[in-house]
Amino acid sequence: MPKRTDIKKILIIGAGPIVIGQACEFDYSGSQACKALKEEGYEVVLINSNPATIMTDPELADRTYIEPITPSVVEMIIEAERPDALLPTIGGQTALNTAIAVYENGVLEKYGVEMIGANYEAIQKAESRELFNKAMTKIGLDMAKNARVKTYQAAKEAIKDIGYPVIIRPSFTLGGTGGSIAYNEEEFDFLINKALSDSPINEVIMDESLLGWKEYELEVMRDKNDNVVIICSIENFDPMGVHTGDSITVAPAQTLTDYEYQMMRNASIRVIREIGVDTGGSNIQFAIHPQTGRMIVIEMNPRVSRSSALASKATGFPIAKIAAKLAIGYTLDEIPNDITKETPASFEPTIDYCVVKIPRWTFEKFAQAKDELGIQMKSVGETMAIGRTFKEAFQKGIRGLEISRFGFENEIYRKKKPDNASPDFDNEKNLIIEKIRNPNSKRIFYLKDAFDIGMSIDEIYAHSAIDPWFLYNLKEINDLEKELIAPLDKIPYELMLKAKEFGFSDVQIARLTGTDEMTVRQKRKEMGIVPVYKLVDTCAAEFEAKTPYFYSTYDRETEIFQSDKKKVMIIGGGPNRIGQGIEFDYMCCHAAYVLKEYGFETIMVNSNPETVSTDYDTSDKLYFEPLTFEDVVNIYEYEKPLGAIVQLGGQTPLNLSKRLLEANVNILGTSSDTIDRAEDRDRFKDLIEKLQFLQPANETAYSVNEAIEIADNIGYPVVVRPSYVLGGRAMEIVYSQERLNKYMTEAIEASPEKPILIDKFLEDAIEVDVDSVCDGEEAVICGFMEHIEQAGIHSGDSACVIPAYSLNPAIIKRIEELTIKTALELGVVGLMNIQFAVKNDDVYFLEVNPRGSRTIPFVSKATGIPWAKVASLIMVGYKLKQFNLERDPTGMTCVKEVVLPFNKFPGVDTRLGPEMRSTGEVMGICNSFGVAYFKSQMAANSSLPLSGRVFVSFSDKTKPKLMDAVRRMRDMGYQIVATRGTRNYLLEHGIDSEFIHKAHDGSPDILDLIQEGKIDLIFNTPAGAESRTDEIAMHKKTIQFKVPYLSTVPGIRASVNGLEQAKRQNLTVHALQDILGYTCDTMPKLLK
């Protein structure tokens, strides 16, 4: 059947900011969908609030709206653009929920918009537990006992039938937000109320517990002619009870019998047919009882999902692209497979290798959070590894996490051997049993400890419920490790080859043989043991693959083919983490695009399955490999490119650069010496003194005593942090010697081989970020960003604005001159970011990063210039004078706001500081600062209320600074509620307010009002230990009940400004192409 000709224009809803449970896999799927629809001749309209995405680049869709993803904003875009159809299945749960809302509001009917990909009835049938249960019962499939409730009273009735433990899940949330397990009545009472609050429709699903059952997923696609294909089977290493996003997963499924697989396959086909998804893909999850074989259908996602991205990368089958084409009328047999060019999409993928995905967590960012895994997702990223066996892929996956682990290693026994005669042995064994019984981020390393103290597979299975097949494979790795404990020259060829086939890294072998990595590498190469590279081809080599997508293994023949083109290697950013996310992948993609355009063969190396950079068509060659020295150099030596780009993928490739240089890798762009000159505190200080710039008083400490002496000389408060870290890891503002003493241990742990940097903290300073690009001879400013929060909050956690909104032009000019001077002095070739602080018209240098920063995507969208592309061409020899960088001012103000994950970590301290904790970002655009800021809050799911009650509580220091803000709120009609001290101060200044007790200071107090829904907005600037305690309690409550909370003077002022302007003018939406003055087809050429 041909594609549909009755629709011309299609609206795609994106996923919005990166949050736990919904990451950059939806940029990958959205980008694929945009390209697929455009190549079929459709006009594509896109809404997405996230500027750090490839899909929001102005050349991808015909009309791109970087706007808040809310039903009201989507309606404005539909009214302006009049699309014929809406595709809601590409943007995760955000898109699905928004599409449902505009359908139910009558917007789609009003404007004649058809929902394609999955219709409303199919979505409801899959998402509503009640309807899904009925559907499964109708087709004879088993489900866990469950109930759908909307009130606490109904939940209390339902628990009588279901019993404990019970799984509690809010409806219509992503990443299992609010999900939990209640083991008794006390836990149930608290968790059910929280879940009712977390659900956008105040609905909770209560399920019979399936703890310990085996969990599986099938990726399924269906077309309008009822053709159904199974793309991939995925098995969870962890049993039920751990969210699939937090579980190690393996593809294809390893422990199913053929009978079980066929039963599950047939069930999935019946499910997708009954639910009614007839033009797209779905993810269907199953559980199987390990003893009885009873199979349960858990749930179905009627959309492209996180697992869809994994399945796509595991098989090479572009699920999102095919789903988009099915949505416009094609059938599976009419769509060619891009990898083989010979088989159609109806040809099910077959793989002759094993894929392992391992999540990456950042519990270290949330000191009070318990390292416990359950049915609410907590991981912030993931790595994927491919090998010929599970053992090889598993060990490659661990080293791909970039957590200083290089394979299957110990947790307790990392630096000592188990000793059953030790007085600590019983305690150690009890701890190991506890940690393998209760899922946590280090469980795989405690499994190694369990083997080393002699626990059998049966014993470990009894405690962990991890399938014995996986445990047997881990035991084989552990047994081989024992054989490797010998002098290196005594390791025979067969044993060395077997170790590499089992996924052992050179680092592991070096530790076991008492040598170093380079010695092992040399010995291995002398033995002729080097990796070969195999193709990911979707068909187990039955057909020739046309798309070069490779993984390494230790086998006999390689499948790489060479070309005569000039090659450039781009080293990606690895798994997402707080401090290093999608922004760096964005820059790597831009490098691949532009270098390919200008005649270079691009080679991408990355291990992140969620990203656009690991899409099969982003670069000329893709190596899905861990970003370790060993793996990167292996590829470099095989490919022999002109050089490698390390400055776009964040700290990961930068940290490799020095060793890569020593291994004769040509580092393109800024030199390793320049990077070290900026990162090394003493060398950086020499640079500042040479340039005669101001810098906060600072010193470098190598011990606790040295740190205390330096802090006494500089004067408290001081900022302390380890050198060579990203995202402010272990950074803190310290106000006393006691805290400094305690801090040093934590900081040294974060960066054990690096010194500790100590700076005088500039209170109440304005922070500024400046991105620039330099070719070694000339430099230009890419973007000048003024932070809205004052200095002291990590730049990655602060809202910022282009153009600056409060600094005077003379200060701006001085900062720009200092930036240019620094770039030229350092000899930067490529991108550079500098952070400044402005206090009393003095400009202080804070730090220089001679690499692409996380702000580059935002700056590129705000200015209309793809700065990562400019930098990439400069790194291969182009000069700035060759570029066309003139653009007319847009007249728009752009605000970047962050999204924080505190709802996933109840109980943690929610105060912001110098250590980064945000997971993603959004962008607000308007012709006024106030409305741009207002829209940024909407996009970050923290909408400022246009009316209602505002609670205010200010420290003595901030009261004079905020009186005008409160007066303006009163004049706008808001009712003011205040604590005693603030209320008295307001009365002295002619502002009346309602009195309320501070937290825990009487009844009712502010916490009661928040819980009762009687507070709409909070302005709170605490001071002192008691106030901080109140702030933490209050902020936790506002997160639970979704009340906007502002705690800084600049943030409160910006909010008031935004509310005034939003109330004066109607919100409008702006297509990026209109703002920048060109369409996707008329973009200015990059070079003159």
Proportion in helices: 25-40%
Total of helices: 36
Beta-strand percent range: 15-25%
Form type: globular
List how many beta strands DSSP finds: 39
| Structural class by sheet pairing and helices | alpha/beta
Averaged pLDDT: 91
C-alpha Rg (nearest Å): 28 Å
* Uncertain stretches of 5 or more adjacent residues: none
Biggest beta sheet attributes: 7 strands, antiparallel
Tell me the span between the first and last alpha carbons: 45 Å
Strand order of the largest sheet: 14-13-10-11-12-15-16
What does this structure look like?
The protein is built from 36 helices and 39 strands. Strand 28 and strand 29 (779-790) form a beta hairpin. The radius of gyration is 28 Å and the shape is globular. The model has no long low-confidence stretch (mean pLDDT 91).
List keywords for this structure.
1088 residues; alpha/beta; 7-stranded antiparallel sheet; 7-stranded mixed sheet; 19% strand; globular
Structural topology:
Blueprint: E1 9-13, H1 25-39, E2 43-47, E3 63-65, H2 71-81, E4 85-87, H3 92-104, H4 107-111, E5 114-115, H5 120-127, H6 129-138, E6 146-149, H7 152-162, E7 166-170, E8 180-182, H8 185-198, E9 204-208, E10 214-222, E11 228-236, E12 249-251, H9 258-275, E13 280-288, E14 295-301, H10 306-315, H11 319-327, E15 354-360, E16 381-387, H12 390-400, H13 425-437, H14 443-452, H15 457-464, H16 468-483, H17 493-501, H18 506-513, H19 517-526, E17 532-535, E18 549-553, E19 567-571, H20 582-597, E20 601-606, E21 621-624, H21 629-639, E22 643-645, H22 651-662, E23 667-668, H23 672-679, H24 681-691, E24 698-701, H25 704-714, E25 718-722, E26 732-734, H26 737-750, E27 756-760, E28 766-775, E29 779-790, E30 800-802, H27 809-826, E31 829-839, E32 842-849, H28 856-863, H29 867-875, E33 893-899, E34 920-926, H30 929-939, E35 949-954, H31 959-971, E36 975-978, H32 980-988, E37 994-995, H33 1006-1011, E38 1017-1021, H34 1025-1041, E39 1045-1046, H35 1049-1064, H36 1072-1076
Parallel strand pairs: 1-2, 1-4, 2-3, 4-5, 18-21, 19-20, 19-22, 20-21, 22-23, 35-36, 35-38, 36-37, 38-39
Antiparallel strand pairs: 6-9, 7-8, 7-9, 10-11, 10-13, 11-12, 12-15, 13-14, 15-16, 17-18, 24-27, 25-26, 25-27, 28-29, 28-31, 29-30, 30-33, 31-32, 33-34
Helix pairs in contact: 1-11, 2-3, 5-6, 13-14, 15-16, 18-19, 20-29, 23-24, 25-26, 30-35, 31-35
